[in-house]
Amino acid sequence: MSRPPALPDPEQAILRRASWLSFWVGVLMLGIKSAAWWLTRSSAILSDAAESVVHVAAVAFVVYSLRLAQKPPDHDHPYGHAKISFFSAGFEGGLISIAGLFILWQAIGQWISGAQPQHLGLGTALTGVALVINGALGWWLLRLGRRRGSLILVANGSHVLTDAWTSIGVLAGLLLTWLTDWMVFDPICAILVALNILWSGVRLMWHSASGLMDRADPEVNAALSERLDRATAALGISWHQMRHRHLGDGHWVDVHLVFDDNTTVRDAHVIATEIEREIRSELGAATIVTTHLEPAEDHARIHGHPPGAAAPPATASESGHHPD
Fold first, then answer.
1. 163 and 41 in a common domain
2. Are 197 and 95 in contact (CB under 8 A)?
3. Cα 38 off chain centre by
C-alpha cells in the first residue's frame, strides 16, 4: 500500500485562511443585505438576507470541518478524518434547503397580504455591491478548492456562487418592480430565488450522501480502467478487481495485479510501485493505492479457470466490487 504524504503546513494554512475569509465576508454580506431589507422591506431582499444567515452558519461549520479534516490519522480514526468533508457538504445543503423553505413562505405571505417594498433605489445598490463581492469570492474559493483537492472549499465556493446567483435574481425583481411599479414582481422573484436555493441544497445533500455511501464515480472508474489497461499492457501483466472511493480530500484505490509465476517478489514489487505511480498520476498526489499481487497460475485456480490455463487479461468490466 502506498500512502501520500500529508499536506504540508503552508498548504493547510492556505485552506484555513480561505475558510476564515469566507466566514468574515459572509458576516459583511449579512450586514449589507440586512440593511437593504430594513430600508426596503422587500421580500426578494429578505430572501437574499436569509440565505446569508445560512451562509454564515454553514461557513462556521466549514472552518471547523476543514481543521478536523486536516488532522492526521489516529487510534480512533486510522483512515483519517477527511470524511467530515461530506458531512460538512450535507450540513450546508440542509441549511440551504431550510432557508429556501423560509423564503418561499415569506414571499407567498407578502403576495397574499399585498405588502409593498420601498426605497428600492438604495436597496438595489446595496444588493449590487453584495453581488460583486460574493461573485468574486465564490469564483476564487471554487478555483482554490479544486486546485487543492478540498471538497469542503469546493462546496463552500458553490454555496457562495449560489448566493451570488440569488442576488442576480433579487436585482432582476427589484429593477422590474422599480421600473414598472408592479409590486407583484417582488414576491414572484423571491419565490423563484427560493426554488433555486432549494434545488442547490438538495444537490449538495445528494452529493454528501453519495460520498458517505462510497458511491462509485463512473468518470473516475473509466479513467482508471483506461490508465490501468495501458500501464499493465506495457509492463506485461494484467489486472482485475479494481475499486475506488473518494475520501473527501483524495481517493483510495485498490487493485489486484496478476504476474507470471516466474516473476520474483522484488521485480513484482518494482512493477506494482510503477502501477501505483500511474494511478496517482491519474487521480492526483493525495491518492492512497493498495495493490494485491497474484501469480497467474494461482489466480487461475482461485478464480475457477482450468488447470494450467493462463489468467485472462482484465478489462474495465472486471473492475466491479465482487469478492475473490
1. yes
2. no
3. 35
Low-confidence ranges of the chain (pLDDT < 70): 1-12, 114-120, 149, 151-152, 249, 299-324
**Cell 436569509, located at residue:** 50
Residue by residue, DSSP assigns 69-88 as HTSPP-SS-TT-STTHHHHH
Sequence-ordered alpha helix ranges (H) in 149-256: 151-180, 185-212, 218-235
Claim to verify: residue 95 and residue 184 sit in the same structural domain: yes
Q: How far apart are CA 187 and CA 104, in angstroms?
A: 9
Distance CA 242, CA 236 (A): 18
Number of domains forming the structure of the chain: 2
User: What is the C-alpha to C-alpha distance for residues 156 and 14, in angstroms, rounded to an integer?
Assistant: 15
pLDDT recorded at residue 308: 46
Is-contact 29 138, C-beta < 8 A? no
Within-domain flag for 94: yes
SS3 284: coil
Whether residue 55 contacts residue 64, with contact meaning beta carbons closer than 8 Å, is answered with no
CA separation for the pair 280, 2 (Å, rounded): 10
Cβ atoms of 139 and 190 within 8 Å: the answer is: no
> Are residues 91 and 68 in contact, defined by beta-carbon separation less than 8 angstroms?
no
Give the Cα separation of 127 and 106 in Å (integer): 19
Q: State the cell numbers at 271.
A: 512493477
Q: How far is it, in rounded angstroms, from Cα 239 to Cα 318?
A: 9
Please report the sign of the dihedral spanned by the C-alpha atoms of residue 201, residue 207, residue 212, residue 213. Answer: positive
Q: How many residues does the chain have?
A: 324
Please check whether residues 231 and 111 belong to one and the same domain. Answer: no
